[in-house]
Amino acid sequence: MDMQVAFELPPLDEEGYLIEPRDWNEAVAEELARQENITLNEDHWDAIRFMREFYEEHQVAADARFVIKHLTERLGPGSRNKLFELFPYGYVKQACKIAGMKRPRAWSTG
């Protein structure tokens, strides 16, 4: 039987978000996505990488509007809801968590 080696995540807060966004890497994203029952595809990675680049530049998580705009520019105007198809339980609850952001305290979890 093929036993998968347990992946040890960096420290998380009580809600499962990284305490330190610098601890993020793609293996962390894969594990956090697995815990959310999401299999990451090219579009997920595009959104996540955009979010990481925004964070690196601004030291704050991108507002969902910026990610929606990015995806719409790449995928076309029919993709306005793509972010919510990729992360059905919400931008903060899933996208921010998987992208290694701290939980944005001022935002709802929706």
Task: Write the SSE topology.
Blueprint: H1 26-35, H2 42-58, H3 64-75, H4 82-86, H5 91-98
Annotation keywords:
47% helix, 110 residues, mainly alpha, single chain, 5 helices, Arc Repressor Mutant, subunit A
Total helical elements: 5
In the residues, how many domains can be counted? 1
Query: CATH fold name, please?
Result: Arc Repressor Mutant, subunit A
Shape: globular
**By helix and strand content, what is the structural category?**
mainly alpha
InterPro entries: DsrC-like_C, DsrC-like_dom_sf, DsrC-like_N, DsrC/TusE
Organism: Sulfuritortus calidifontis
Subcellular location: Cytoplasm
GO molecular function: sulfur carrier activity
Question: Can you characterise this structure?
Answer:
One of its GO terms (biological process) is tRNA wobble position uridine thiolation. InterPro entries: DsrC-like_C (IPR042072), DsrC-like_dom_sf (IPR025526), DsrC-like_N (IPR043163), DsrC/TusE (IPR007453). The protein has 110 residues and is mostly helical. The chain has one domain (21-98): Arc Repressor Mutant, subunit A, CATH 1.10.10. The chain is 47% helix and 0% strand. It has helices at 26-35, 42-58, 64-75, 82-86, 91-98. It is globular. The model has no long low-confidence stretch (mean pLDDT 89).
Please sum up the structure shown:
The chain has 110 residues and is mainly alpha-helical.
